[in-house]
Amino acid sequence: MKAIHVNSTLPFFAKHKDGIYSIEKFSLYTTVISALQWRKMNGEIFMCTDEIGAEYYRKLGIEQVWNGIKTVIPTDMEGIDPVMFWAAGKLLAMREVKGDYALVDEDFIVWNRLDLPKTAVTVAHREDISPDIYPDPDSFGIDFPLLKKLDKSILPCNTAFLYIPDESFRDFYVNQSIAFMKSAEGCGDYLCRMVFAEQRLLAMLCGYCNIGIETLLDKDRLFVAQEKFTHIWGAKQAMRDDAGEREKFEESCRKRICADFPEYEYVIEKIETLGGLQ
User: Fold this and answer.
1) What sign does the CA torsion over 168, 87, 5, 212 have?
2) Phi, psi of 126, deg, nearest 5
């Protein structure tokens, strides 16, 4: 099965005015292992990014960890607020990439071979509707007519992993999500509207279209040790705050690359000398 990683650089520049684009080393290591492990167990994987992202990976010298780099995300994100909708690049990339593929976040690693159903959407896991993260979408005050027809009781989907085998439904979801993001105005909300557009809206649209949802992980066992999947999302801030934890994680990544992918050992020197915010 094919897969894509997605990286839009505009959210970085929205926070780092006039900065030089860079990615934290622990994130680079995770991305490399995610790509190489997918290729080992499941097939081709491509990086979908914008012009700046493509140039960054090539200058860094790690572009060979993917089967190719696709420059499909517009650098201006078509006017979508890159702070409020920091993951909008994923939806824009999915709009452009056709065919059968899974979307895998760069911080999500699949350790085994997947055999996914063709009759349902597969996501990382479901999420509870907590009001601080998933408030009543009517409170957004956005002109989004379809919302009145959707079941707001359906649990959202975590899309760190996302496979939508029905291309027509994938286009429907992507177009509705982009329409929602374009209709929103800046309000200082950096979480709720993004996770609605990407995760809650997907679940509600599945309900609306009578499409089933399968999960890779049980939402009630996310903090139990896993063997088949690794998602470092929850550990990112801890590594930013604790240099010791960050260095320990990066060393474990270096050991993993040397042990499992010795032909790509050269990326370690590239990342250590040329890449990474610290």
Assistant:
1) negative
2) -90, 165
- 8 Å CB contact between 157 and 209: no
DSSP code for 9? S
Which residue, among 121, 115, 124, has the nearest Cα to 212 in the 3D structure?
Answer: 121
Q: Of 270, 273, 243, which Cα lies nearest the Cα of 31?
A: 270
Q: Which of 201, 192, 200 shows the shortest CA–CA distance to 133?
A: 192
CA–CA separation, 222 vs 197, rounded Å? 23
Neighbouring residues of 216: CB distance < 8 A, sequence distance ≥ 6: 122, 123, 124, 125, 161, 228, 229
Max intra-chain CA distance, the chain? 54
The tokens describing 109, both together, are 């690693």
Q: What is the pLDDT of residues 62-105, one digit of tens each?
A: 999 999 999 999 989 998 999 999 999 999 999 999 999 999 99
Task: Quick: pLDDT tens for 32-61.
Answer: 999 999 999 999 999 999 999 999 999 999
Q: Report the candidate in 161, 13, 4, 11 with the shortest Cα–Cα distance to residue 69.
A: 4
Which residues, 6 or more positions from 146, have their beta carbon under 8 angstroms from its beta carbon? 176
